Amino acid sequence: MAEAVTVLAALIGAVIGSLGAVWLAERHRRSAEEEARRRSLVNRHLFQLQEAADTLWHRLANVRHRGGRYVMTDEYFSQSTLYALGRVLAVERILGLEGVYPELAALDPNLSRFLKDHVIDSRLDGTKFYKYDRLTLAETLIEGEEDRFRASTYVEFRRRYDDPSLGVRTWLAPALESLVRLDDDVIDALLTDLAAIAERLEAETQLQSSIRASTGP
Q1: How many CA atoms lie within 13 A of 212 on its CB side?
Q2: Is residue 98 within 8 Å of 149, Cβ to Cβ?
Q3: Residue 148: phi, psi to the nearest 5?
Q4: How confident is the model at residue 70 (pLDDT cuts 50, 70, 90)?
Q5: What is the largest CA-CA distance in the chain?
Q6: 111: Cβ–Cβ under 8 A, 6 or more apart, which residues?
Q7: pLDDT digit string (tens) for 173-206?
Q8: 21-69 pLDDT, tens per residue?
Q9: Rounded Cα–Cα distance for residues 160 and 71 (Å)
Q10: Is 146 left (phi over 0), alpha (psi -120 to 50) or beta?
Q11: How crowded is residue 189: how many other Cβ atoms within 10 Å of its Cβ?
Q12: Is residue 11 within 8 Å of residue 81, measured between CB atoms?
């Protein structure tokens, strides 16, 4: 009888041990899958958002605080500033089009919430820079590649902007006019949000924001 109890206990222990090993293996597999999904989002979207936020911050800071507008030709200012803002708006638009926000919410609710609270497009609500003028600018800078979207390069944007047959200058004229007339308070708010985005994403991309180098710790 004692031997039977010992054997039964051993069998139960073996079963529990086996189930525990299966549970640990499944937990490890799910953790690895989540980390792979997170890395994919970082490489495909968040790095581009950080870089775009850095670029737009430098352009706005240059114009707002360093008199950069006075050393630019009208054409250079128009093209480069539309691109800098449009790229951020395009990346944000892609996050929506590709369903990144709900996917990120499942992986990292705090990061998802932060990004939603710092959407640059939303910062322009209530200004004369109207929603569909911003949407036009954003979608002008989106390229479709197979089953995914990406933001345009500057050369791609310039080629499209300079082609009179496409009418892009006409489409973006309201966006440019609104951009030129943004209040200083709005620009300062954009600078604050852009710096916050770039700094928050440093932890994800492992790449230091160039804004930090410009402003100090």
Answers
A1: 13
A2: yes
A3: -145, 165
A4: confident
A5: 97
A6: 104, 200, 204
A7: 999 999 999 999 999 999 999 999 999 999 888 8
A8: 654 555 555 655 566 676 777 778 889 999 999 999 999 999 998 888 8
A9: 25
A10: left
A11: 15
A12: no
